[in-house]
Specification:
- By secondary structure, the chain is an alpha+beta fold.
- The protein folds into two domains: 186 residues, FAD/NAD(P)-binding domain (3-Layer(bba) Sandwich); 154 residues, D-Amino Acid Oxidase, subunit A, domain 2 (D-Amino Acid Oxidase, Chain A, domain 2, 2-Layer Sandwich), CATH 3.30.9.
- The protein is 28% helix and 25% strand.
- The strands form four sheets. Strands 4, 5, 6, 13, 14, 15, 16, 17 and 18 form a nine-stranded mixed beta sheet that branches. Strands 8-2-1-12-20-19 form a six-stranded mixed beta sheet, with helices on both faces. Strands 9-10-11 form a three-stranded antiparallel beta sheet, with no helix packed on it.
- Strand 9 and strand 10 form a beta hairpin.
- Helix 1 packs parallel to helix 6.
- The radius of gyration is 21 Å and the shape is globular.
- It starts with 8 loop residues before the first strand and ends in an 18-residue tail after the last helix.
- Bound molecules: flavin-adenine dinucleotide (FAD).
- Flavin-adenine dinucleotide binds next to strand 13, strand 18 and helix 9.
């Protein structure tokens, strides 16, 4: 019989990655402890996400992990009885310029190699998929009908409930202040309320991950930058896919302006700001709404009648090479990382959790080792090629 402060594994962070990881380990029969500094589950960057879930990436590891996430999210209601807002509407990347057409067509061979259900459609085809899209300059686009959307808040709550049902213990408002070390092994954590012991400690602390890694002697730079999102009042369902417009708008040169209609009929949207805003300030800016409103109406003119309900600003836990850091920490026993999720931690969460649970419980990930190791914490984070669709 274990003492109340002894567990088989401890997860630091009840977020996009921590909750599924705790759930899958609890399913393996592990006695789990999850600690979070906030007052309930999914209240970190998880709740800033707009809930897009796609396997259509350019990096093989992200493709495989997100394929698994899609499998988990899309069958969640069947397996648990809980509706987490899954909507299989696909993703569409429309091309309004030659440059965007070349970029997205260039990704198709690797996406096809992984048997992703994605194709190039001509302008007419895209107009059928994205109701009301402006035909001005539209050249065509890619469409992947198996991708979709989920509510991040409902998902966090449901993963937590299922993990607790399997015996996991959640403690909120209890930040981890330090790691308990024994030689080169992590054997527990300390909070203001005391010490908890476990042979495995999983760092899933999102934008705070660097400090916890440093306590184990690891240099894993996670550099938060901020992004804004918003949501409208509900309107009748008309828009199936999440739409990603890669054209540089007044707000930026990079690729992230995307929006969709969630399962409740609300239009949900976000973009990457002009100059990356580093740091952890989460006050909304005054530029966001005017810019996003113009862009939404440019892509789908009928959106001019929307009522916006709420906006917010959240953080991407970025890495220097734009890819997550997932796996056993190098040269530190018992310390596992699921960090650096960049702009895709919500969609990666279940796939990362499933593989980390298998790694801890069975010594190997579910996906091919070669593919999994592309995200290895032992890689040189400054050497890699930048992910095309981060
Ligand atoms: C506007 C916007 C839109 C986005 N849209 C999408 C999207 O459509 N799809 C997608 O996949 N991603 C999206 N993202 C990105 C996504 O939100 C993040 O990548 C993801 O939430 C990161 O997951 P995480 O588990 O690493 O961090 P989090 O979900 O933040 O979880 C980390 C948890 O650790 C806790 N914690 C931190 N330090 C400690 C400590 N010392 N002790 C205890 N607890 C601690 C935090 O309180 C938090 O709950 C979006 C982000 C933004 C800002």
């Amino acid at each position: 019989m274990k003492a109340a402060t002894e567990f088989d594994a401890i997860v630091i962070g009840a977020g996009s990655v921590g909750n599924p990881t705790a759930y899958f380990l609890a399913r393996e029969g592990f006695r789990m402890l999850v600690l979070d500094e906030l007052s309930s589950s999914g209240q970190g960057q998880n709740k800033a996400a707009i809930g897009g879930v796609r396997a259509t990436h350019s990096d093989p590891a992200k493709i495989r992990l997100c394929q698994q996430s899609l499998e988990i999210f899309s069958h969640w209601k069947e397996s648990t009885g809980t509706d987490i807002g899954w909507k299989k509407g696909g993703y569409c990347f429309p091309a309004f310029t030659e440059k965007v057409e070349t970029t997205i067509k260039g990704l198709l061979p690797v996406q096809k190699k992984f048997r992703l259900n994605i194709d190039w459609l001509d302008a007419e085809g895209i107009q059928k998929v994205v109701t009301g899209i402006s035909p001005d300059g539209l050249r065509g686009g890619t469409y992947s009908p198996d991708d979709g959307q989920v509510s991040p808040l409902l998902a966090a709550e449901s993963f937590t409930r299922e993990a607790v049902r399997l015996g996991a213990v959640y403690r909120y408002r209890e930040p981890v202040k330090s790691l308990v070390l024994n030689g080169n092994a992590v054997v527990g954590v300390r909070t203001e309320k005391g010490e908890y012991r476990a042979p495995t400690v999983i760092n899933a602390s999102g934008v705070n991950a660097t400090g916890l890694c440093q306590m184990a002697g690891l240099n894993i730079p996670i550099l938060p930058d901020s992004h804004e999102g918003g949501i409208s009042a509900p309107v009748q369902q008309f828009l199936d896919p999440l739409v990603v417009d890669l054209r540089p708008g007044p707000e930026g040169k990079t690729i992230n302006f995307y929006f969709g209609q969630d399962a409740n009929g609300q239009i949900i949207f976000c973009y990457t700001p002009k100059v990356p805003i580093s740091g952890t300030n989460r006050n909304s800016t005054y530029e966001f709404m005017p810019i996003i409103a113009a862009r939404l109406v440019e892509v789908i003119p009928r959106l001019k009648n929307l009522t916006i309900r709420r906006v917010w600003r959240g953080l991407y836990p970025m890495t220097p090479d734009g890819s997550p850091v997932v796996g056993k920490a190098p040269n530190v026993e018992g310390f596992v990382l699921g960090v650096g999720m960049c702009g895709q931690g919500f969609m990666l969460g279940p796939g990362v959790g499933l593989n980390l649970a298998s790694l801890v419980a069975h010594g190997k990930p579910v996906v091919d080792r070669e593919v999994f190791d592309l995200l290895s914490p032992a890689r040189d984070l400054y050497a890699g090629k930048k992910e095309a669709l981060k």
